[in-house]
Amino acid sequence: MSTAEAGWLQAGLLVSALALAYRPLGDYLAHIFTTTRHWRVERGIYRLIGVDADADQRWPTYLRSLLAFSVVSVLLLYGFQRLQAHLLLSLGFPGVKADQAFNTAASFVTNTNWQSYSGESTMGHLVQMAGLAVQNFGSAAVGVVAVIALIRGFARSQTDRVGNFWVDLVRTVCRLLVPIAAVFAVVLIAGGVVDNFSAGHAVTTLAGQHQVITGGPVASQEAIKELGTNGGGFYNANSAHPFENPNPFTNLVEIFLLLVISFALPRAFGRMVGDNRQGYAVLTVMAILWAGSVAGISFFESGYHSGAALAAGGSLEGKEVRFGIPASTLFSASTTLTSTGAVNNAHDSLSPFGGGIAMVNMMLGEIAPGGTGSGLYGILVLAVVTVFVAGLMVGRTPEYLSKKLRAPEIKLASLYILTTPALVLIGTGLAIALSGEQASILNPGPHGLSEVLYAFTSASNNNGSAFAGLSVNTVWYNGVLGVVMLLSRFVPMIFVLGLAGSLASQRAVPASAGTLPTHRPLFIGMLLGVVLIVVALTYFPAEALGPLAEGLH
Amino acid sequence: MSVMTSRWPGVVRQHLAALRALLVLTVLTGVLYPLVVMGIGQMLFPDQANGSLVRNGEQVVGSSLLGQAFVDAQGNPLPQWFQPRPSAATDPSVKNDPGCNPLFSGASNLGPSNPVLLKSIQDRRAAVAAFDGVPAASVPPDAVTASGSGLDPDISPAYADEQVNRVARARGLDPAAVRALVAAHVQGRPLGILGQPRVNVLTLNIAVAHLH
Predict the structure, then answer these.
(1) Distance CA A129, CA A209 (A)
(2) Which domain holds residue B192?
């Protein structure tokens, strides 16, 4: 079988698995957030936390709870890293220095998992397991609960209540993330991912060299790293490392995990607003963008579309033999479209246009299908804008899912859309303007700009992957990117929850002859158009100076 | 909620609740979850969970998942061993580190138009062609490019084939026998469609060392 044929069948197998999961997982998600029954263990947790699980919150309270949880998470994770030297299983590593500890804490709490550190030479097992990995669960859950509150805004009417943050958080962790992660962690171990407390043991290799076989609680972290669209690798090489991703089977499992919740959430959305077709419409837009990206990156990586590919006879720099090109590009497209940021190949060495598409994937705003929860709220905000644009065309007050989109809703949606590009472009501009920071760039020419643009795009979209040639372990990059990650995660979330509150307070208006149906191909096409036009208008100049200039050279 | 904390301002109470929630989640997802997974993994799949170690006779000589260097003390490739891919996993503080160092996993991160990368591809091609006694044009791509992890345990079947004559000559073996050994070590795609066919360098080298 040719490489291309096998590659397409491999992608087809992935799509089939995701399609099979769509309805059961989506229905289960809807059930988790609509049932009134608590599990006994959850009741115990609510008692420990000291919250009333049956009291719904207004949106500002919901937001404050979410922010309080995140603030405490950043502080605790920061302290954990700083004190590492005094803890168990530290492997003899010293405390992480202040700027890097701040960057890493911000990174994991915001679901970005940008890594300015190298796992195997910085973090002990306990910090990885009980610090970083806990935020893999926590930050993924925070994304999910935010979109659930937004969906309730559409589904409920004439109420100021959008749900209970603590209940949503605990249910997401206990009922969704832990069970799925546990099952797949064992699957990954069966496939060869390591899971032990070894501090590394030295062996004499066949040719008489000295090699240290590293260890660690890797599989448990690997499973949630993908499932929660986190992406922070246990080791520096991330999912290219054979101990994190030993073979093509585990590779496909990992891609499946990082897509499955985000692709199933539209089903939960459809269920909760009482019209499954609304879920299918959103899913279709996500799927078209995903398929287009997979095809695009695969095309540019499989031919001779760069100097290196031409010289070597194939685009294999930074790729692993066991994956080859199709399994690498499938991973690259999926990880950059989901805000995961795990990598199974070095994105810095992708062909100019292949790397450019990876960047555009993030610039779409992580919506196809995006991070757990954040992907769906991102595309729903764009759907709001789309309905508004359509309303302008026919001169009617726009409605989406029986809710009128008035000035407050459109303002919140617009602010949401402006936040991320502002952070990307201002950040990149600053880094390029400051001569001291230019020294961090590894590659010459337009590719150097691409490295910086990629870094700010990744941080501002909470992705976490990198053109890793850029030396980002400097006080400036650690500080600035840390702040960028926090702003880009929580400022849009304020707008999302504000939107949720504003929508929930409205009375549902019955659909009329003038209502734009939001489940038909016309709307799907318009939403796709809005997504692509917003991205193109915002980022084209920056892309032109980086990957386009390099690719056309 | 206790009587004492209920008198505190809302914002303090909220952060205390958040702290308690985080501690509970840490116990659940940061201690119980990984320990249960590790327990099951160690019970059901101890070989995998402990790094898929490979023995040569009694001696553990590495992991089938981690590439290793087959070089002499000066860092020159040894002709009697199949050679792995170039590796960027090197200790920067060690001169001539041959790579495949699991404490420094990673890629070169050189961009696709970077002259440094283009030159090293050319240099590697010339070196491999000379070492293996083959025309430069028949050196496969994985032989001249560094892997993503720097620990790639595999090479392509083409690169393994390309090294057969040199290994056979260095060991005084029949090239046909070595070629057959390589063919027996080619791992196809799982399910026929996943990933790429490959040859594990360490297990192939152990087998070739036992060939007489």
Answers:
(1) 31
(2) 52-209
